[in-house]
Write a structure and sequence with these properties.
Length: 198
């Protein structure tokens, strides 16, 4: 028995996440600064939970429901977010590097100051989402729905917005390519001050 316990203690770091954090999350509907790296929460309902400053790196969150959840400052690097629901969720200051968020729902989400690097948001829905001050680089927004979303103080020229819906999307102090600008104008996007079309 003693050797079994020692073996389990040694193997725990290989799983990544902390079992006690998972227990706390589902019992209290909150877990601040917790480790869920590598966990499988696919199809779970975590709506309204407080999970700020937590680590979801390499986790499977496909079809997980985070409606109105507070996830501020959390790490989602290399996470599967396919078809996840972040409607009205707070994702400000989150690291969304290399996430797969294809067909995810970010309606009305707060994405201020997030990091998006080589992230896949294709076919996602982000109506009225706020991407202000987000660091967006080499990311895929093909065929995404971004109507009435906000892009304030962003560099978007090396990301792909082909086929994206940009109706009344607001751009301010943002750098776009000439092609992106032309497509946005066709979609009746709103250009405020400081928009640069390179």
């Amino acid at each position: 028995m003693k050797w079994f316990l020692i073996t389990m203690i040694l193997l725990l770091p290989l799983f990544g996440y902390e079992p006690n954090d998972i227990k706390k999350l589902f019992e209290q509907e909150e877990c601040v600064g917790c480790d869920f790296s590598g966990v499988d929460f696919s199809k779970k309902d975590l709506s309204g939970y407080d999970i700020t400053d937590s680590n979801f790196e390499n986790a499977n969150l496909s079809q997980t429901n985070f409606f109105m959840s507070d996830l501020q400052g959390s790490n989602f690097k290399n996470t599967n977010l396919k078809e996840a629901i972040f409607w009205k969720a707070n994702l400000s200051f989150c690291d969304l590097t290399k996430v797969d968020a294809k067909k995810a729902n970010f309606k009305g989400a707060n994405l201020q100051s997030v990091t998006l690097y080589r992230s896949d948001f294709s076919y996602s829905v982000s109506w009225k989402a706020d991407f202000s001050d987000a660091s967006i680089e080499l990311s895929n927004f093909k065929n995404s729905e971004l109507g009435s979303a906000k892009f304030y103080n962003n560099e978007l020229s090396n990301s792909d917005f082909t086929g994206a819906i940009l109706w009344e999307t607001q751009f301010k102090d943002t750098i776009l390519t000439k092609k992106q600008c032309n497509e946005a104008k066709k979609e009746e996007a709103i250009f405020k001050k400081g928009v640069i079309c390179e």
